[in-house]
Design a protein that fits this description.
alpha+beta; 5-stranded antiparallel sheet; 3-stranded antiparallel sheet; about 25% strand
């Protein structure tokens, strides 16, 4: 499961890449293939041990794919804490490193309407939003050691949160 955890972090990092990060322009699936050295043998068949690993990753994507598929990187830059993706009025925080029970992020213009834990829906994180920061609190025992995915539902489009103006589609 350690390898799958690493892959999960790579996928979330690739999805949350900043728009200007050129080397992450590679699609996440390609990153997975390169990292795992997965590919068909001379007969065109993927060996069973590689197939099993891909199925584990597929299971994770089926469960948490909303935080990856059809999202954009941002509005937060990747940091030691993890990275973020967004779609419409939702921000997906992929948190791999907490500060104890807390995650403190820069403030946003829009209001946070709700905060939920996609990794474990029964463990609801608390949040405080003020002019200085957004602070999310989740007990260490409730955090996923690989990737805790926190969903912030915002009062306005997340594309308006960028300092260089709204994000437009390519």
């Amino acid at each position: 499961m350690v390898v799958v955890g690493l892959i999960v972090r790579m996928v979330s990092c690739a999805a949350s890449r900043s728009v200007s990060a050129h080397w992450w322009a590679v699609p996440p699936v390609t990153v997975i293939y390169l990292l795992l050295d997965v590919g068909p043998n001379a007969l065109g068949v993927i060996p069973e041990h590689q197939s099993a690993r891909l199925k584990e990753i597929g299971h994770w994507l089926k469960k948490y794919g909303e935080s990856i598929y059809a999202t954009r990187g941002g509005p937060y830059k990747n940091g030691t804490w993890g990275g973020s993706t967004f779609k419409d009025r939702k921000i997906y925080l992929h948190v791999s490193q907490w500060e104890g029970d807390n995650l403190r992020l820069p403030p946003l213009k829009a209001k946070v309407l709700s905060c939920r834990n996609l990794s474990n829906r029964s463990d609801k994180p608390a949040f405080v939003q003020d002019n200085d920061a957004i602070t999310i609190t989740l007990a260490a025992s409730k955090q996923d050691s690989t990737d805790t995915i926190i969903v912030l539902e915002m009062s306005g489009p997340v594309s308006n949160e960028f300092c260089n103006g709204p994000v437009t589609k390519d």
